[in-house]
Amino acid sequence: MTYDNTLSPQRLETLQALHAQAVEACQNAGQLVGKQQESLRAAQAKLVQLQSYAAQYREQMQTLGSAGTAWSQVRDLRGFVDRIESAIAAQHQELGRQQHVLAELTAQWTGLRQREKAFEVLIGQHEAQQRQGQKRSALKNLQEWAVRRASQFLPSSQQRSDL
């Protein structure tokens, strides 16, 4: 018993449907990756902004301290700078979380993209088998035609009886 490794039309339709689902899932995952990249950029921008505020207020605090400003005013500004520093630390943590989420989403997208490509390979193999089968069929038809054509020119005693 031989195994027929050609795909049936139903199996091809199933592969095409699964491929379409994989394409859609990949596109959805790609959109999520894009949104997460935007969130990461926003978190990075917020961190830069907080660091800029902290530097600005530290400079202002030094200026006030060297100008002989009231100690209570410098102390209040120092408290404010400390709160900004806390916000910077929290933003660093948020940035790490955003990077982790992006890495996870990117890994999911990569897996879905590989699945999509696998279906494309399977469908391509089926199409190649189909073309090969069509070539064999055309060659067989051509050979049969050539034998019939040649037999027309043979004397009737030499013609093959199996045609």
Describe what you observe in this structure.
By secondary structure, the protein is mainly α. Helices cover 87% and strands 0% of the residues. The radius of gyration is 37 Å and the shape is rod-shaped. It starts with 8 loop residues before the first helix and ends in a 10-residue tail after the last helix. The model has no long low-confidence stretch (mean pLDDT 88).
Structural class: mainly alpha
Work out the helix count. 2
Total beta strand runs: 0
The first-to-last residue Cα distance is 28 Å
Main sheet summary: none
Task: Return the string of H and E elements.
Answer: HH
Q: Roughly what fraction of the amino acids lie in strands?
A: under 5%
Question: What is the share of helical residues?
Answer: over 70%
Q: Are there runs of 5+ residues with pLDDT below 50, and where?
A: none
Averaged pLDDT, please?
Answer: 88
Per the principal axes of the C-alpha atoms, what is the gross shape?
Answer: rod-shaped
Roughly how many Å is the radius of gyration? 37 Å
Multimer state: single chain
Structure keywords:
single chain, 163 residues, mainly alpha, 2 helices
SSE topology:
Elements: H1 9-66, H2 71-153
Helix pairs in contact: 1-2
